[in-house]
Amino acid sequence: MSEKRDDSQERTEQATARKKQQSQEQGLVARSKDFNALMVLLCSGLFFIALGHSSALKLQHLFESYLAFDPKLLADDNGLFLALKNAAFSAIKVLLPFLILIVAVCIAGPMIIGGWAFSWENVALKFERLDPVKGLSKIFSLKNLVELIKSIFKIALVVLAMALIVYLFMKQIVYFSFADPLVGIKQSVKVLTWSFMLLVGALLIITLFDVPFQLWNYQQELRMTKQEVKDEYKDTEGKPEVKSRLARLQRELLKRRFATEVPQADVIITNPTHYAVALKYDPKKMKAPKVVAKGVDFMAEKIMEIAKQHSVPLVALPPLARTVYFHTEIGEEIPSELYVGVAQVLAYVHQLKLYKRGKSNKPKIPNKIDIPPEMVK
C-alpha cells in the first residue's frame, strides 16, 4: 500500500469502504498471474479446436502461394516489395482473430478477479521503492514465500508432465525422424495435444490454490489499525461537506418516513411553528401513545403540511409540544409523567371528531395541561 502505516499497531480491523475505494484508485487490487495464464491457455485451446483447422489451411495456402518461385519478381523491385507486403497482410489477416482473442483475454482475466483498476502512481518513479529496509521486508513477506513455493511447485509439475509425455510417447518421438512427414506431423499434433492438456491441468491445480490465497492476502493487506479507523472517521465525518451531505440525507429519510407515518397519526401537537410532534395511540396494540414523527423549524412545517393534507388534527400547545419533543424519541411511547397531559389532548381530539359528525358540541382546546415542572422545556 502506498499509504504510510503505523506498523507498531496490529492491523485487526476490516477495511472501510473509503479504504477499499482508495486502494482501487491506486490500482491496488487482487491479482492472480496463474489465473490469467490459465485463461489464455484455455481460450487458445478452444480457439484452435474451433478454428484451428481452417486457419491452418489458410496459412498452408498462403505459404504455397507466396513461397512459389517467380523469376519475374527478381527483375521487379516494386513487384517483390508488393508481394512481401501482400504476404504479410494476408498472414496478419489469418492470425488477427487469434491475436484479438488473446488481447481480450489478457484484459478480461485480471478484471474477473479484482476488477478494473489502473493508476499512474504505479507507473511513476518513487524513490521510496529504493528503500533497502522496505525491500528486505518485502523479500521476506508471506506473499513472496508463497510465490517461491508456487514456483517450485510449477517447476515440479512441468518436469513431471514432460517426464510423463516422454514415458507415454517415447516410441512415437523416436519414430518422428524416420516417419513419413504427414504421419510425423499427425503424431506431433497428438503429442502436443497431450502436452497442452497436462500443462493446463497442472496450471489448474495451481490456480485453484492461488486465487483464494490472492483474495485472502489482498484483504489482509487492506486491514487497518484501530487508530487508522478513528483517523479516517475524523477526516470524513469532520468535513463540513460530509456533514452537510449526511444532514441532507437524514432530512430526506425523515421526509419519506413522515409521508407514511404522519397520515396515520391521531394528533399533531405544535409550538405552533417551531416544534411539531405527531402522536399515535392504539389501545389494542400500545400501552401508551407513541411518537411517530417529530421535528423543529423546517421539519415541523413539513409535518404540519402533511397533516393538513390528510386532515390530521393540529393542536397548538407549546409547553406540551416542547416537553414531548425533548423527552421522547421517534418510535417511543411517551413517559408516564405525560400520560395525563396527552390524555387531555386525545380526549379533545375525540370530541372534535364527534363534533364534525354532528354528534357533540364544539370542544374547547385544553388550556391547562398537567406537565411536571421538572420536565417543562
TrEMBL record:
It is a multi-pass membrane protein. SUPFAM superfamilies: EscU C-terminal domain-like. The keyword Transmembrane applies. Residues 1-25 are annotated as: Disordered. Keywords: Bacterial flagellum biogenesis, Bacterial flagellum protein export, Cell membrane, Cell projection, Cilium, Flagellum, Membrane, Protein transport, Transmembrane, Transmembrane helix, Transport. The chain crosses the membrane at residues 35-52, 94-118, 151-170, 191-216. Residues 1-13 have a biased composition (Basic and acidic residues). The keyword Nucleus does not apply. It comes from the Bacteria. One of its GO terms (cellular component) is plasma membrane. This is Flagellar biosynthetic protein FlhB. The lineage of its organism: Bacteria, Pseudomonadati, Pseudomonadota, Gammaproteobacteria, Candidatus Berkiellales. The gene is flhB.
